[in-house]
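During the reporting period the student researcher (J.K.) took over the structure-prediction task from the postdoctoral fellow and processed the backlog of single-chain submissions. One of the processed entries is reproduced below for the supervisory committee.
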Amino acid sequence: MFAMIRLTVIMASWMPLAVYAQPPQPLALQQLIVEALDRSPALKAAENRRDAATYRRPQVTELADPMFSYTRWISTPETRVGPQTSIFRLSQRIPYPGKRSLRGDLVDEAVNASESQRHIVSRDVTYQMSKAYYDLYAVERSIEILDNYMSTLLTFTRVAEEKYATGTGSQASVLKSQVEASTVMARRLAFEGSRGGLSAAINALRDRPADLPVETGSELGISYYVIPESLLVEQALKNRQELQIVDAHIRRSDIVARASGLAFRPDFEVQAAYITVPKKSNTITDSGKDAFSIMLGLNIPFRRAGRRAAELEAKAEEMANRMDRSRLENLVRAEVSDIYQRATSTAATLRLYDQGMMALAESSLESALAGYQSGPVDFLNLLDAERTLLKLRLDHIRELAQYRKYIAGLERAVGGDLPGGR
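J.K. obtained the following structure tokens:
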């Protein structure tokens, strides 16, 4: 009886964690993802960077400000119609046709890269939230399984106490149940620690206080994803945002190369001048007639070595970006294949559970319990049967959560929703 009381005390020592605490409102994964995408500081920063990039196009495509100058002669030059006293000039520099539009195209590619980076942040926030959610789900369900195991263990201990009291059992059986209870208690405390860390990670993703309670929603269903790996690789090579960024860099290098070619073309300058001439003689018919002039100028791209070097630099940069794309394609293929194979292996394991592995373990426990109560089976065999069932249940929850994480990882690897859905 003393052992029974001691085991009850062990169980009660964790009950305040599970019963007396105010349970938080269960949250669905999609609800958490929407909140994280709405509140994520990282995503907002990426959006602001993209918006900032869009404001650069007018800055680089506008003409330079016109230049106004005024000249006042100190010693006025004399002309046939009178002395020149003042000159008003207005000039405008005009780049060679195509140069300004290419500068705008460079900005557009920077915007495209920024937008792809925003999608990367959004994609990664979604994946990190899914991963933390499934881990938290596994922890919470594991705690429930351990709680149920402890209730069963209490029943076993009561039977062991009765058998010991009647002389048909040993005190060692009761002591073994106490040791088992302490071991399970330690495992439960480890899961509780993991739950706190995972809740803090989820709250960080949705910009909430770290100590805000989080609880997962309903049971995870299982639907196996059977789309061929080749289709996933094809979509990943089409939609993966890192590849889109490299593509933007390739196009940018091509634009820079074309702009370097236009650097060999001259820029123009148009200038208009108005010259004031006061009237000093009545004998000259056009005396005091102000003058007006128009000038067209251009620069001479005489120094060509630097321009040629810039052109070669742009072509080399484009080649480097193409090699980077090839490297990333290989990495994307390998990533998709790795996750796909892991998901396939985990799905096969889950099918084993679905095909009766759990039912067999439950039947084995029922048989061992009946045998222990009637006498042929000792307490250690009963405890082993219950441990086997406990391990299967914990492993099943872990594999289920892992499979869902692999599917989320595939969504991240292909750069969006999976073809055909989950």
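The committee noted the following: Confidence is low (pLDDT under 50) at residues 1-5, 9-23.
J.K. will present the remaining backlog at the next meeting.
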